[in-house]
Amino acid sequence: MPVAAASTATKPVLFDLPYAPLAKKRLPAGRPREWYINHNRRLKAMRLAIALLDAGFYRPEQADNRRIRATAELVDIHPPSDITCHMVRALMRYSR
Questions:
Q1: Reported pTM
Q2: CA dist list (Å): 74 to 12, 24, 52, 78
Q3: Residue partners of 18: CB distance under 8 A and separation at least 6
Q4: How many degrees, rounded to 5, is the angle at CA 20 between CA 51 and CA 86?
């Protein structure tokens, strides 16, 4: 009779622990102002896209501007502009 293999894990691994962001680093100096604006916009779009995916919205057509802004309010992010909302949908579209 086969014997059940014993688990070598001492503790169960929990994947749904609260998210803790990494320590922030300063952005490189000397870039044009537009670079910093675009960089921060991309970061905001990524955070919003992740929040929408976690909430169960997997398709870009499910994420209209109203829903994206409501999600931003839920996760304490300033309301995104129309350009940022467009970037969120683009990230959701190209992540497939």
A1: 0.72
A2: 30, 22, 11, 10
A3: none
A4: 25
**Mean pLDDT taken over the chain:** 83
Distance between CA atoms of residues 84 and 43, nearest Å: 10
Stated length of the chain = 96
- Tens-place pLDDT, residues 39-55: 999 999 999 999 999 99
The answer to whether the beta carbons of residues 74 and 51 sit under 8 Å apart is yes
| Token pair listed for 61 | 């057509």
**Quick check: helix, strand or coil at residue 13?**
coil
Contact 79, 55 (CB under 8 A): no
Residues 96, 78: Cα–Cα separation, whole Å = 27
Kindly write down the DSSP assignment for every residue of 46-72, as one continuous string. HHHHHHHHHTT--SGGG--HHHHHHHH
The Cα 76–Cα 61 span in angstroms is 23
